[in-house]
Amino acid sequence: MASSSFAAMKSRPYRAQFIAYVLAMMADNVEHVISYWVVFQKFHSPALAGFAVLSHWLPFLLFSVAVGGLADRFDPRRIIQCGMLLFIVASAGWGIFFITDTLQMWHAMLLLVIHGCAGVLWQTPNQLLLYDIVGPADLPSAVRLNAMARYLGILVGPAAGGVIMLALGPSHGIILNTLFYLPMLLWLFWAPISAQGAVAKRLAVRGLADIVQTIRVIGTYPVLISMTLLAGLTSFMIGNAYHAQMPGFAIDLGHGDPGVAYSVLLAADAAGALLAGIALEAWGRLRATPQTAIVLAILWALSLLAFASVGIYTLAIALLFAAGFFELSFNTMAQTMVQLNAPADIRGRVVGLFNMAGLGMRAFSGITVGLFGAAIGIHWSLALSAALLLAFLFVLLRRASVQAGRTRASGG
């Protein structure tokens, strides 16, 4: 049964988590704005910019399952707090190097790695904490609202970062940014958690063996395998790599100032995602099934295929708005089904595997969209990536439909 509109917001602990999550996500993006600007001005290194992308997503690929295993074994609140402390260390580190004017390239690389590792320690345990805060009935609402919080942070962060940098300068501005992580860090001392979530479990964290064993487990759960494949395919083929190419799309569309056009295109994508969260929360009747999630992903890929092909600025905005809408829709639906269907004793590992596929694989989308874009043009690379993704998604949809038919036939 679908939960009521904005059901998770009726929980006081969830409301506190939502506010702290928005602030932390905003701080994450403020740090990107300030640090990337200073690093670009100092080094003018495309290689370092590429390293920034890899250092952000590779930790999710390498460590998501391990962190999920830690969250299975230990209190997830403490793991998230470790992530917040690493975020604070990264922002403070940037600030110290900026003030003393001693930043070297290896310093920047180290801080980028620390920031990427902080994200891994935050995201998977936070998803497990949502389950404890609101319970399975309101989990779909909590997942959608947290996705909205992420996009709010993405929208507000760059603007806030620009204002802070203008008002205080990069050095003091990025040190001020450390304060935005404190609400999440402090709230977690009082955040509620189920007795099962707070008690340490005996399962050891075994690195690569955990990944192999978790894959074997989800292989017996059709919903889990379908949604993990969906997350991996969409992230590997496209992910959010087209965001990095948006300045090029803005220039090619040739509508006024490229800087303004670039900002509007990114805002359209984020605004579509926000509307999806609001609409799905208010309506609450879209049933979460693997087939529905895959169809929404197909619509996302079609929107991006059309965006790569058009030369009309206003139509491009509309297509990016649609892409944002469908992306949040299928991602949150897939994440919800993974959490609800994961075995309780290894929920952290299963969610970690899903994040490894959905976030870690984004490191490779820079190849499918980015490097190929340098060779054949960004329009062709995005269009071909979207077309190939569509072919894979139709195969996955057929597989999910056959499995659903077998389940109905067996009375499951």
Description:
It is a single chain. This protein has 412 residues and is an all-alpha fold. The chain has 17 helices and no strands. The chain has helices at residues 12-43, 46-73, 76-100, 105-134, 139-176, 182-187, 195-198, 208-218, 222-237, 241-244, 246-253, 258-283, 290-309, 313-341, 347-360, 362-376, 378-409. Helix 1 packs across helix 5, helix 5 runs antiparallel to helix 12 and helix 9 (222-237) runs parallel beside helix 15 (347-360). The radius of gyration is 21 Å and the shape is globular.
For the termini, the CA-CA separation is 17 Å
Helix content: over 70%
* Run of helices and strands: HHHHHHHHHHHHHHHHH
Radius of gyration: 21 Å
Strand runs, count: 0
Range of strand content: under 5%
Shape: globular
What's the average pLDDT?
A: 86
Largest sheet: none
Number of contiguous helices: 17
Which class do the helix and strand fractions yield? Answer: mainly alpha
List unreliable stretches of 5+ residues: none
List keywords for this structure.
412 residues
List the helices and strands and how they pair.
Blueprint: H1 12-43, H2 46-73, H3 76-100, H4 105-134, H5 139-176, H6 182-187, H7 195-198, H8 208-218, H9 222-237, H10 241-244, H11 246-253, H12 258-283, H13 290-309, H14 313-341, H15 347-360, H16 362-376, H17 378-409
Helix pairs in contact: 1-3, 1-4, 1-5, 2-4, 2-15, 3-4, 3-5, 4-15, 5-12, 5-14, 9-13, 9-14, 9-15, 9-17, 11-12, 12-14, 13-14, 13-17, 16-17
